[in-house]
C-alpha cells in the first residue's frame, strides 16, 4: 500500500512531535539542574516505560514469539530508536544550546533523504529537496526569533556533534520502521512491537550507563518535581509518542514523516513561552506556515 498523508497520519505525527517537544523541555530541566545525569536519565526513563508496558506486551518474550526469528533486526531497532538517540540527546543538552540542538535536529529531512538514497534506493525528487529547504527555513525563524542574523554567531560544541549523530540514528530507525522486510511485526499487537523495541533499547542504555557509572558521573536526586518529570517522559514522549511515530511513518513514509520533526522546535518554543507567560509571536505563525508549506511540497509525490 502506498504511503499517504491523511488526517489520522497527520494527527499521529503531530502528537509525537508535541510530546517530544515536552521531552526536550523536561530533559533540559533535569539535566541542567543536575538532578540526574544524562545516561542515567535515559535508563530510568526507559526502565519505567518498560515496566508500564510489560502487562500489555509480555507475550513478545514467549519462546514461540516472532521476535526471536528477527532478533538481529530488533537489536538495531532498539539501538537506533531507543538506545542511542535518547542517550545522545540528553548528553547533547549538557553542552549545546537549545538553538543549536533543535536547529541541527531540524536537518533530519536532509538525512532521511540521503539515507533513503544510499541504503534504500529511494532517490529524492526536486519537490522533496525544495520542501526540505522551506521547512528548514521555518525552523530557523523559530529558533532565531525572526532574526536570522543570529545564525552567524552560532558556535559548534561537542553537544552539536552528538545531536547530529542522534539525528542520523533516528533517520535510520525511521527507515527501518517503514521497511520491515521479512518481519511480520506489523501484524503484532502494538504493545508487543513496542515492548520489543523498548526492552532491547533498555539493554543498550544499561550498557552505555555502565561507562557513566565507571567514570563516576552517574547521579540521581529524586524529589517531587524530578519524579513528576521522569514519569512524564516515561509515558508521553516514550510510550505514546513512539507508538504514534510508528503509525505516522507507516502512513506517510519516512521522508514525509521527517518533515513533521521540524514542529518539535516550534512546539518547544511555544511551550517555553507559555511557561513564561508569553503569548505566541508573529514569527511563530510565519514559521508554522513555512513548515506546513514544506510538508505539502514534499508530499506532492508518492513515496514507497
Outline the structure in words:
This protein has 304 residues and is mainly α. Helices cover 73% and strands 0% of the residues. It is built from twelve helices and no strands. Helix 1 (7-32) packs across helix 11. The chain starts with 6 loop residues before the first helix and ends in a 6-residue tail after the last helix. The model has no long low-confidence stretch (mean pLDDT 84).
Low-confidence stretches: none
Instruction: Spell the H/E element sequence.
Output: HHHHHHHHHHHH
Mean pLDDT: 84
Structural Rg: 19 Å
Number of strands: 0
Number of helices, where a helix is a run of at least 4 consecutive DSSP H or I residues = 12
Amino acid at each position: 500500500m502506498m504511503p499517504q498523508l491523511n488526517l489520522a497520519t497527520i494527527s499521529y505525527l503531530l502528537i509525537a512531535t508535541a510530546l517530544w517537544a515536552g521531552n526536550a523541555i523536561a530533559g533540559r530541566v533535569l539535566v541542567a539542574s543536575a538532578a540526574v545525569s544524562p545516561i542515567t536519565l535515559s535508563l530510568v526513563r526507559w526502565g519505567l516505560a518498560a515496566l508500564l508496558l510489560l502487562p500489555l506486551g509480555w507475550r513478545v518474550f514467549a519462546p514461540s514469539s516472532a521476535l526471536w526469528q528477527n532478533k538481529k533486526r530488533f537489536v538495531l531497532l532498539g539501538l537506533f530508536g531507543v538506545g542511542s538517540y535518547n542517550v545522545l540527546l540528553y548528553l547533547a543538552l549538557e553542552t549545546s544550546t537549545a538553538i543549536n540542538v533543535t536547529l541541527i535536529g531540524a536537518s533530519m529531512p536532509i538525512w532521511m533523504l540521503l539515507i533513503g538514497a544510499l541504503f534504500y534506493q529511494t532517490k529524492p525528487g526536486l519537490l522533496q529537496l525544495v520542501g526540505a529547504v522551506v521547512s528548514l527555513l521555518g525552523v530557523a525563524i523559530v529558533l532565531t526569533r525572526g532574526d536570522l542574523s543570529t545564525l552567524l554567531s552560532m558556535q559548534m560544541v561537542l553537544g552539536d556533534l552528538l545531536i547530529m549523530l542522534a539525528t542520523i540514528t533516528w533517520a535510520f530507525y525511521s527507515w527501518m520502521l517503514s521497511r520491515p522486510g521479512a518481519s511480520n511485526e506489523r501484524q503484532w499487537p502494538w504493545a508487543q512491537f513496542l515492548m520489543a523495541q523498548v526492552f532491547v533499547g533498555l539493554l543498550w542504555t544499561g550498557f552505555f550507563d555502565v561507562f557513566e557509572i565507571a567514570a563516576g558521573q552517574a547521579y540521581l536526586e529524586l524529589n517531587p518535581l524530578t519524579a513528576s518529570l521522569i514519569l512524564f517522559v516515561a509515558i508521553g514522549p516514550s510510550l505514546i509518542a513512539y507508538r504514534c511515530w510508528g503509525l505516522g511513518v507507516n502512513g506517510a513514509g519516512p521522508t514525509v514523516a521527517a518533515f513533521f520533526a521540524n514542529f518539535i522546535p516550534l512546539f518547544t518554543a511555544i511551550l517555553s513561552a507559555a511557561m513564561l507567560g508569553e503569548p505566541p509571536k508573529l514569527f511563530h505563525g510565519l514559521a508554522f506556515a513555512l513548515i506546513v508549506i514544506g510538508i505539502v511540497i514534499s508530499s506532492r509525490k508518492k513515496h514507497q
